[in-house]
Amino acid sequence: MIRAGLGFDLHPLVSGRPLVLGGVTVPAERGLGGHSDADVLTHAVCEAALGALALGDLGQLFPDTDPRYAGVSSLVLLEGVRTVIAGKGGHLVNVDATVICQSPRLAPYLPEMAQRLAATLRLHPERISVKAKSPEHLGLLGREEGIAAMAVVTVEIATAREA
Questions:
Q1: CB-based burial of residue 87 (10 Å sphere; 0-12 exposed, 13-18 middle, 19+ buried)?
Q2: Which of 97, 111, 2 is nearest to 47 (CA)?
Q3: Each residue of 53-91: pLDDT tens digit?
Q4: Positive or negative torsion for Cα 64, 70, 73, 76
Q5: Rounded to the nearest 5°, which phi and psi values hold at 133?
Q6: Does residue 163 surpass a pLDDT of 60?
Q7: Which one, of 41, 50, 74, 51, lies nearest residue 150 by Cα?
Q8: Long-range contacts of residues 9-14, Cβ cutoff 8 Å, at least 24 apart
Q9: Contact criterion met (CB below 8 Å) for 36 and 72
């Protein structure tokens, strides 16, 4: 059985933090604020993967009240999500994700983001699509107040489960 999940995440841009997207540090004047490394791309993928099997959300697995996750790489969280899904008899099939930001331009970094997500998920890189879109100066993203990401993940499970 194939299941699909949709994920979304949004974090504010803040001074004094690196900008990490898909596990890649992107040169930028500001980074994303949050409890972990605030990697919106990886968080959206995590949310989508969990949603595919109706397993709740990232905050339920890795609460921002837990000091163990302060500043942690979101790739560590993604590995945890992959492990939970495997424990339910599932494995990820593919990922399609989009980062939405006005700046910086992400095109040069997208292949490495896809590569890092693929390595963490133990998938062939051709099963990971990472794109970037500009909000065309509209709204909070266009004003460069934050960065958002969306993802769709498909998961195959060996046996049908009750939802």
A1: exposed
A2: 97
A3: 999 999 999 999 999 999 999 999 999 999 999 999 999
A4: negative
A5: -130, 145
A6: no
A7: 41
A8: 9/40, 9/41, 9/43, 9/44, 9/47, 9/148, 9/149, 10/40, 10/146, 10/147, 10/148, 10/149, 11/38, 11/40, 11/146, 11/147, 12/145, 12/146, 13/144, 13/145, 13/146, 13/147
A9: yes
Task: Give residue 40's identity as a one-letter amino acid code.
Answer: V
Q: What mean pLDDT is predicted for residues 5-34?
A: 98
Nearest of 30, 57, 44, 41 to residue 114 by alpha carbon: 41
* pLDDT of res. 158: 85
pTM: 0.95
At 84, which amino acid appears?
V
Task: Give the DSSP letter string of the chain.
Answer: -EEEEEEEEEEEEETTS-EEETTEEEP-S-EE-SSS---HHHHHHHHHHHHHTT---HHHHS-TT-GGGTT--HHHHHHHHHHHHHHTTEEEEEEEEEEE-SSS--GGGHHHHHHHHHHHHT--GGGEEEEEE--TT-HHHHTTSEEEEEEEEEEEESS----
